Fold this sequence. Notes:
Blueprint: H1 15-28, E1 31-33, H2 44-59, E2 63-67, E3 74-78, H3 96-105
Antiparallel strand pairs: 1-3, 2-3
Helix pairs in contact: 1-2
Amino acid sequence: VPEPVHEVELERVSLRDRARVLLAALKQQRCIAFENLFDDGAKRIEIVVTFLALLELMKMGAVTAVQDQYLGRIVIELIAPDADAVGFEGMDDYDSTTATAAEEEHGVAG
């Protein structure tokens, strides 16, 4: 058996948690630039999952996002009258049991 060259590390980031963080930030400021949601050392997975959370919140009618020009800044605005009333029941999220079963089925070590 050849030695592994690179081991892929699976990092789990919760879509619901990122949506809650996004709403909490918008409760403080009704508008916020997308890039201001991250520290300088943000990992790619955090940015991607936050973007997915933004899309889910837009689908739910809780926020809107505006980009005035091509490749311009994305500004997110809270449009829900009560951010605390936004429900996350319908939002898909990572299910560790399902992921573990899929990993085992495909021979992926977690």
